[in-house]
């Protein structure tokens, strides 16, 4: 038996490939369904490999222990080449999603009523031989009466259905189709890097969204992200939108998904089967003498695994956008609930189940306010004391002494302000609205963070609503910065 690369195992048509592997390149994209592998076996492999044979691949969990391996792909051989002069086997393998791509729907499917999306998915997938499928999370929503599918590939039909649900489809390591949205669960931290690159792009950004419903229903949302000029417009037309409120809701959702500039992180690291698309990871990169560092969570959207003469490495991309999905939604929202006496509760499944989230908070906390963002960061107020949480326990946050643009004497002290509201506009960005009474005058400030890992006193800056006569009475506010800045509406005291 030959002894080749120890980091790869598995089988072709049930025949063990361990010890025959010269190299393996495996590509897995969340945004582009289907996992592909390019496997090279030496000429001594004791099987005449042919397209259509089953294939199972394993990769080493720990490169120092070649016997500790995990399955990474289950699929079929699609192409076989013998290369001169060694006559090694060069084998192309696709996971079972390839069957969805090749299957053709020969009949036209039409809905006579509003059917659940899950019903339509079963109509598309169930007839395909050898396909097992299940849902990662339940998919809500229905397809309107009169929907038609047919005379097209099952892949195209499935993509159409998932567009309605803003969901993804991919094969897991065992070849089972996973259909649903990405959950907010962190799988681990990546701390060792061979290369690290961060690039921002507005290529897929749309900072203006126009929604057209049943005439004359219309709504429009605009954002102004840095670097986007002229405006990039997305138009959505749906005759089913019968009210202006519904059109505004859709426009608000779409602009929230489309307006941010794409921030893609690409890095090469030591390979591990644990790193796969649809998983959330903590990236902890320190550039040493370069002074550049990065410490945030992100969603793996693509993986390219390389195993060969140079060992076992992976190129991983985080936070790519997937324009084939309506709204490009990446994950289910995290829901938070505050209580009077029982602290904070959190739901990761859109409110189906709730768990307490009180580590680091006072016992029986009466939580007045809470704000969170898409990165899982949260800040809450108990009385006028702020607490921040990213991964583990809540930690107390102290605001610095506010600016004294009104020229009060004595100046406003540290920590005496009343918290009125909290909001978060983006990962690392929080805004806190506070008030105080100085010399019988009402004073108002907005504090904001600079995006640091844990907001400490030095990480905040404040802006005061200046009025050195009578002060202000707050009438309304929007701290979300959804229009590029925060807004506070106030009148002078007594007005």
Tell me what the structure shows.
- The chain is mainly β and 495 residues long.
- Among the domains are: 82 residues, Phage tail protein beta-alpha-beta fold; 55 residues; 158 residues, no CATH class.
- Helices cover 8% and strands 45% of the residues.
- The chain is built from four helices and 38 strands.
- The strands form ten sheets. Strands 1, 2, 3, 4, 5, 6, 7, 17, 18, 22, 23, 24 and 25 form a 13-stranded mixed sheet that branches. Strands 29-30-31-32 form a four-stranded antiparallel sheet, with no helix packed on it.
- The longest helix has 15 residues.
Report the helical percentage: under 10%
Which sheet architecture does the biggest sheet show? 13 strands, mixed
What is the rounded distance between the termini?
Answer: 91 Å
Count the E strands: 38
Shape: globular
**Low-confidence stretches at least 5 residues in length (pLDDT < 50)?**
324-328
Helix/strand/pairing category:
mainly beta
């Amino acid at each position: 038996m030959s002894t080749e690369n120890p980091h790869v195992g598995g089988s072709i048509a049930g025949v063990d490939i361990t010890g025959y592997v010269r190299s393996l390149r495996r590509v897995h994209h969340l945004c582009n369904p289907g996992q592909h592998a390019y496997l090279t076996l030496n000429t001594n492999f004791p099987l005449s490999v042919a397209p259509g044979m089953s294939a199972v691949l394993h990769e080493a969990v720990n490169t120092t222990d070649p016997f500790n391996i995990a399955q990474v792909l289950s699929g079929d051989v699609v192409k076989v080449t013998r290369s001169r002069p060694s006559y090694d086997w060069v084998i192309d393998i696709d996971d079972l999603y390839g069957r969805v791509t090749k299957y053709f729907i020969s009949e036209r499917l039409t809905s006579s009523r509003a059917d659940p999306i899950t019903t339509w998915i079963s109509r598309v997938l169930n007839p395909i031989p050898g396909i097992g499928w299940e849902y990662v999370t339940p998919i809500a929503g229905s397809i309107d009466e009169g929907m038609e599918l047919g005379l097209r590939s099952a892949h195209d039909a499935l993509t159409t259905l998932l567009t309605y649900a803003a969901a993804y489809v991919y094969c897991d390591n065992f070849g089972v189709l996973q259909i649903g949205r990405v959950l907010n669960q962190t799988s681990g931290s990546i701390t060792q890097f061979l290369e690290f690159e961060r690039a921002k792009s507005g290529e897929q950004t749309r900072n203006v969204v126009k929604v057209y419903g049943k005439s004359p229903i219309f709504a429009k949302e605009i954002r102004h992200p840095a670097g986007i000029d002229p405006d990039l417009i997305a138009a959505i037309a749906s005759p089913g939108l019968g009210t202006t409120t519904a059109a505004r809701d859709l426009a608000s959702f779409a602009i929230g998904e489309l307006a941010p500039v794409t921030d893609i992180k690409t890095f090469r690291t030591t390979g591990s089967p644990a790193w796969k698309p649809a998983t959330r990871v903590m990236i902890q990169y320190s550039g040493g003498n370069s002074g550049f560092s990065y410490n945030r969570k992100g969603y793996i959207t693509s993986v390219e695994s390389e195993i060969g003469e140079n060992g076992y490495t992976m190129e991983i991309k985080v936070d790519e956008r997937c324009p084939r999905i309506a709204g490009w939604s990446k994950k289910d929202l995290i829901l938070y609930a505050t209580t009077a006496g029982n602290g904070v509760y959190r739901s990761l499944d859109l409110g189906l189940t709730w768990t307490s989230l009180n580590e680091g908070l006072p016992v029986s906390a009466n939580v007045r306010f809470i704000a969170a963002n898409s990165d899982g960061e949260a800040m809450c107020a108990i009385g006028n004391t702020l607490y921040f949480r990213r991964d583990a326990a809540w930690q107390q946050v102290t605001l610095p002494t506010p600016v004294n643009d009104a020229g009060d004497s004595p100046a406003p002290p540290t920590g005496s302000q009343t918290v009125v509201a909290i909001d978060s506009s983006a990962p690392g960005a929080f805004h806190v609205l506070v008030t105080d009474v100085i010399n019988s005058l009402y004073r108002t400030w907005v504090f904001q963070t600079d995006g640091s890992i844990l907001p400490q006193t030095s990480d905040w800056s404040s802006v005061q609503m200046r009025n050195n006569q009578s002060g202000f009475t707050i009438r309304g506010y929007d701290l979300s910065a959804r229009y590029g800045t925060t807004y506070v509406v106030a009148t002078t005291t007594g007005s």
